[in-house]
Amino acid sequence: QPKSKTRITAQHRLVFQEDTVFFRDGVRRIDFVLSYVDDKDGEKKQERRREFEANLEKAGLELETEDKSDSKDQKTYFLKIHAPWDVLATYADVLKVKVPFKESDVPHGQDVPLEWLSHPFRLPDHVMHPQPDYFTYPFDKNKMDFFLINDKDTFFPPSTRNRIVFYILARCPYFKEGRKDKDKTGIKRLLSNGTYTAAFPLHDCRYWKRARNAECESERFNLYKHWARFLCFYKEQPLNLIRKYYGEKIGIYFAWLGFYTEMLFFAAVMGFICFTYGLLSYDVNMSSKEICDADIGGSILMCPLCDKKCPFWKLNSTCLSSWQSHLFDNEGTVFFAIFMGIWVTLFLEFWKRRQARLEYEWDLVDFEEEQQQLQIRPEFEIRCTNRRLNRITQEMEPYLPVTSKCARFCLSGATVIFWVSNLSQCVSYRLAVYAAFASIIKDPMRKIQLVGRFITPQLATSVTASCINFVIIMILNFFYERVAIWITDMEIPKTHLEYENRLTMKMFLFQFVNYYSSCFYVAFFKGKFVGYPGKYSYMFGNSTKLRNEECDPGGCLIELTTQLVIVMAGKQLWGNIQEALLPLIRNWWSSRKGRHNPENHYSRWEQDHVLQNFSQLGLFYEYLEMVVQFGFITLFVASFPLAPLLALFNNILEIRVDAWKFTTQFRRPVASKARNIGAWQEILNAVAILSVVTNAFIMAFTSDMIPRMVYLYAYSKEASMRGYINNSLSIYNISQIPKENMPEDDWYRDYRYPPGHQKEYTHTMQFWHILAAKMAFIIIMEHVVFVVKFFVAWMIPDVPSDVKARFKRERYLIQEYLHNYEVERLKLQLSASFITEPQSEMSLMTPDNTSIILQ
């Protein structure tokens, strides 16, 4: 903001033209820009624009138009909007914008010992812009002298200015005064019907170069240089600068993402230690040694894994997968599963504390209630024609009748159930793929050679099914997204916060089914309802001939690991490529169509015009991506301890990719407020509780740990794992296998009595011992983890004690300063009245209802 109010001459304006964020006079700041193109059939659009702009001027905004002849493409008009002080003050009062009124005298906490260790990770002060703390209070236009207003032009920061202007644009009508077209309101409808092509606030300068005008802000340049570049991955994020430039809502997102990434470091280290233990105990794995032994595993002939097409196979053909399974299915995995149950509680509790500190520092403590009362969605106002009295504001406001609301919710619920029911397609697909592979590979000793490694048909089926399942997930995401938005629009939520919360719940439910259904199937259903030779179970009944799929001979855990790695890693890789390349390609294409000169030849508004628009749901998708990842590293982490390490590497890249997008590829978004991460907090809490249950069931029913422990402590004569493989197999007389189950051209995994026994082919007592041990393990693990979780949550307060004390102190001082201010103002009013009408004595009441006597 120029300190001088002197008008800039044409010669000076030419120098600063490319980087200026001011009107032609060089004094009035551009708070918002609208663009449009005059087309041949644009009479109606011209009429709308004339009425809309006339109403904007009536609202007090100042406008300036750049003719298309002055733009480089010779097609686009740019309407620049400036909000003068009176407009800003009026709507800051309406929106209850908190502003400083006195410098804080509350002392900060003491310096942390060994703070010098964090010095390499800190950013310099000229980037962080440390500012003194102020006591703040909602702006009141009638108490102008109460606030610290040194310069009206800089009192409201650009983010607050563009938020106020957008609030006016969203509610300004584009019909003549006196008409009853109440639906013809707001910039959103004008953008949707093509009257305007874009509406956006301006960046303050080019991201790769400081503004030429030294008195102009260069916050975008600082953000790019010290935040968006990948070489800064080890540095702290300038959260206060992000909040100042983009608003609190985006600031909260990056604060949460940074904190989540920091906490992932501890989980990644512990997971790597667990994986290392599996590697170091590789050579003492007696079960794999017996499977690979030619005299043990090579002499055991196993029953076919499918009807007709599948041959008999030798147990030692699963040697490789048994070794691979041991890397993730070992004693260390139990400890890691318990650790992650506690880690997720610590993460959520410490984030609550971090969030409470940000709420206090960023003046967001009471924001949500104000937003619920004030910021009604324009779509709600347009579609709800009924009016009723608001008991709080005592004003007439639109509302949705109960009957209409119930009908919309019923239709919404039925649609959600319909789409969620598509889960069964994943199971049917896997059965079909398995049958296809089995029909190709008929030779019992044949294997598929891939990249110098031998892969069994079952493992090949698991890998290919997981890859194609990932493709299906990406396709279904396209439909799920649009269905969720359509359902939420149909419900007509009243406020923006309510809209986002409802959309969040629906989208996560769809994504939960879409991403996790295949993992749940492999972990808890595959191989659990197979039956036994001669009495196999079939999907959808015996008439379908689709035999229930058995686990890979190496166990279901290695298949779950394969599924998790492919879906999780594939999603992260595809997401980063999509986030980085799509905006870059779109911006290159849009600038290529209308530009013939270097970018620095264009004005600030033309440079921003070709950038991608950051939609209202842009941040929603960023949260969704991270919360889905959070589900992967918590719900199924017992099967893959390296999942937090993959997530850590991804998030380090994700922070910088998102920062790069915001600073270079997107227009400056309209600043908006949010006191927390919204409905995502409840989703994270639900996932955290569910993760304890899923990991306990994975260790009990998917892993072979419990059967191994039961054998070691109850059935092994040598108190070792020697002989476990023979003990875990049952014998079947192949002459009793029905003809339809026999392969075309005597062992199987289970705990059943052999042929000739009086309880032939029924479960042995060891089976029931193992089942009891599994249930006991689930109960013990869940109770231990839940007790620790709730104890930790109880021990750690949600709000830090120093923040709570500073908040109470600030509330007390605010009341005191307000009281003194009102008393002084009353004294001044009475003094002025005494001059005109002298009185000997007067009694009056102060705001706290105490009586004072003035003489």
UniProtKB/TrEMBL annotation:
Residue ranges occupied by any Anoctamin transmembrane domain in the UniProt entry: 242-810
Main location: membrane
UniProt-listed InterPro entries: Anoct_dimer, Anoctamin, Anoctamin_TM
Keywords from the named record: Cell membrane, Glycoprotein, Membrane, Transmembrane, Transmembrane helix
GO CC term (a single one): plasma membrane
TM region(s), chain numbering: 253-280, 332-351, 454-480, 507-525, 627-649, 683-702, 775-796
Lipid bilayer topology: Multi-pass membrane protein
Keyword Transmembrane helix in record: yes
Entries under Pfam families matching the protein: Anoct_dimer (PF16178), Anoctamin (PF04547)
Coiled-coil features, chain-numbered ranges: none
Domain Anoctamin dimerisation: residue ranges: 22-239
Localization, UniProt: Cell membrane; Membrane
Molecular function as annotated in GO: chloride channel activity; protein dimerization activity
Keyword presence, Transmembrane: yes
PANTHER family per UniProt: ANOCTAMIN
Family assignment from sequence similarity: Belongs to the anoctamin family.
This protein's name: Anoctamin
Organism: Salarias fasciatus (Jewelled blenny)
